[in-house]
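so i finally got all the pieces together for this one. its two components total, 669 residues if u count the protein bits. some of the lines might not be protein, just check the labels. i wanna see the whole assembly predicted at once instead of chain by chain like last time, that was a mess tbh
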Amino acid sequence: MTRIALASTNGQTMTGAAPETAPMSIRGMTVSYGQKPVVFSVDATFPEGSMTAIIGPNGAGKSTLLKASLGILRPLSGIVSVFGRPLNSQRHRIAYVPQRASVDWDFPTTVLDVVLMGLSRELGLLRLVRPRHRARALDCLSRVGMAEFADRQIGQLSGGQQQRVFLARALAQGADLYLLDEPFAGVDAATEKAIIAVLKTLKAEGKTVVSVHHDLSTVTDYFDRVLILNTSKIAEGPVADAFTETNLQAAYGGRLATAQVAGIPVAG
Amino acid sequence: MLWQALTLQLGYNATLVAIGATLLGFAAGVTGTFLFLRRRSLVSDAISHATLPGVGLAFIVMVALGGDGRNLAGLLAGSAVTAALGLLAVQWLTRRTRLAEDSAIGAVLSVFFGFGVVLLTVIQTMESGRQAGLDSLLLGSTAGMLRSDALLIAAGGALTLILTLILRRPMIMVAFDEDYAAARGLNIRQVDLATMGLVMAVTVVGLKVVGLILIVALLIIPPVTARFWTDRTERVWLLSGLIGGASGFVGAAISASAPALPTGPIIVLTGFTVFALSLFLAPNRGVLAAVLRHIAFQRRVHLRQGLLALAHGQPIYERYTVRLLHRAGLSRPDGVATEAGRARAAKALLDEKRWEILRAMPDHEAAAALYDGMRPIETVVTRDQLAEIDTHLAAPQEVPA
C-alpha cells in the first residue's frame, strides 16, 4: 500500500526533474583501482526533492561512485554536474556524510567542534567562532538528538551517536543536496529512526537525498528512488518501477538470499 | 647559577639564546601538532635530515662567490632548498610508487643525509672559507650566536607560527576527516604540502639552536605531551606550543648555567621530562590513571559477582572476592554473608532480574543495550518504566543465609 502512495508522489517529483538542472547528474562515470574498473560507465540523475538509495552487492562500487562524483576519488572518465553547473562551483550546496570507519575517533576533538566544521565556509580561515555559530551547531545537534553530548570527546560516543554527529555536521552546512555513505551501517535502532526522520524532513523541505544503502528490507519504506549498481548500472528510477526482483537478481545474482526478497515487488 | 639563567641574568648571549629557543620551541610545538594530528610525525625526520646537503652546498656556493661561507641566512636558505626536495621526494614516492610512507622516509632520509656528510667531508679538505664549525648544525650550537642570528631565528619562528595559525582550520579538517575535507573542496595534497612546508620552515629555523638531528624531538614531543591533557584540538596546539616554548627556555637556561652542557640536547631532555611526567600523571590518558581505573573497576566487578554469588547461595572461589567482601563488611572472612551483605546481595539480585526482564522487552532495545552486568538499572530507565518492569517480577526472592 505504501508502495502505491510512494509511486504517485514519485510521479510528481519526476516531472520537474530535467537532467540538465538536476541537483546531481552523472554521465559516463568510470572509476578504476589499477586496471580493474569498479564503476563502469554509469549514468545517473538525482532529481530535486527525491530520496535515492544506491544499492548493490558488496564491492559493487556504491561508495566509489559517491566518492568519485564528489571528486574525492578521481574518475577515469565521466562528467558530473550539480544543479546544472560544474561540481566545483556548487560545492557549497552539497553535504557529504562519509562512512564512520573513515575517521580516527581518538582524534582530540569534541562533538560540537566536529559540527562546527560544517560551518567552515562561513568561518573561513580566521573568523572567530561566535555564540551564534555555536547556537547553530547546537541546533543541528538537537535535530539529531545529540545536543546533550556537545562537549564529549568524539571517541566516547557509540557508533550510532557518531553517525548522528556526522549528519549534524552535514546539516550545519545548510546544503541542498545530501550524499550519505551507508548511514545506517552498524547503528542502533534509535539512531536509524532519528536519521531517517531527519532525512525525510530534508526531503519535505525540497532537499535532495542520496544514500548508499545495504538493507534491502527498508528500501521501500525509506526511499522513493533506487539506483541499482553492480559495477555498471542495473536499473534506476522510482522504487515501484526499478526495485524489482528481476533487477535485484541481475545485481545480486545468487547472493540475493530469499529472506531479503520478502516484501519486494515481483517484476510485472 | 641556574636561577640567574632562568631570570635572564647570565649576560647578553645567554639571553639571546633563551629568547630564541623559547620562540623556536613554541613555533615547533604548534606546527608539530598539525603533523602529529595528521599522523605523519616521522616525515619531519626525513625533512630535517634532508637539510644537510643544502648546508654543504650553500657553503660551497658562498665561498665560491667570495663570501663568508658561514653566513647563517645563506646556510639556512640552502638547507631549505634540499629539505624541500627531500619532502617532495617523500610525497612523490608515496603517491606514485608502491612504497609505503615509512619506506619512502627511510630512503630519502638516509640518501640525503649521506650526501650531506660527503659534502661536509669534502668541505673540510677545502682551503678557504673558515669551514670549522659547520657540523655544529648537526646537533646545534649556541656558543657563538650572533644578534643577527637570534633575530633571524625569532623572525622565522614568528612567521611560521603566524602561517600555521592561519592555516589551522583546513589542516585540522584534513587531519580529522580527509574525505569530508575533499568533498568540501579542499585540495588535500596542497594542504598536506602546506603542513610539511611549515614543518620544514621550523626545521630550518631550528638548525642553529637544536640541530637537524634533534629538531624532530621539538616537533613531536610537545604535541604528544599536550594530547595527554586535553581532548580539544584548539587546546592541544596551544598547550603544545607552551610546552615547546617552556622546554626551549628552561633547556637554554640550564645549558647556560654550566659550561659543558649542549643547548639542543638539554632542550630536548627538558621536553622529554615534561612528556614523562604527563605520561604517568595525566588525569585521563595517563598510565597511572589508567591503572587506578582498572583496579577500581576490577574491584567493582568482583564485589558484584561476589554479591550475586551470595544471593544465589553459591560458594565464592576467588580469594580476592572474599577479601573484598569482608573488607566492605559484607561477609565474614569465610565468605558467609553478613546482615548488610545479605541486603546488598538481594538488591544485586533484584537488579539482575530487572535487567533480565528489560532485555526481553522489544520496546527498550536502546536501554537494554546498555547492560554490562554492572550498571544500576535505575540509571537507564525512568521510575515509571521501573514500575512496569516490576510488574513482571515474581514474588520477592529470599536470600539464603
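The CA atoms of residues 352 and 373 of chain B lie 8 Å apart.
Chain B has a mean pLDDT of 89.
anyway lmk what u think
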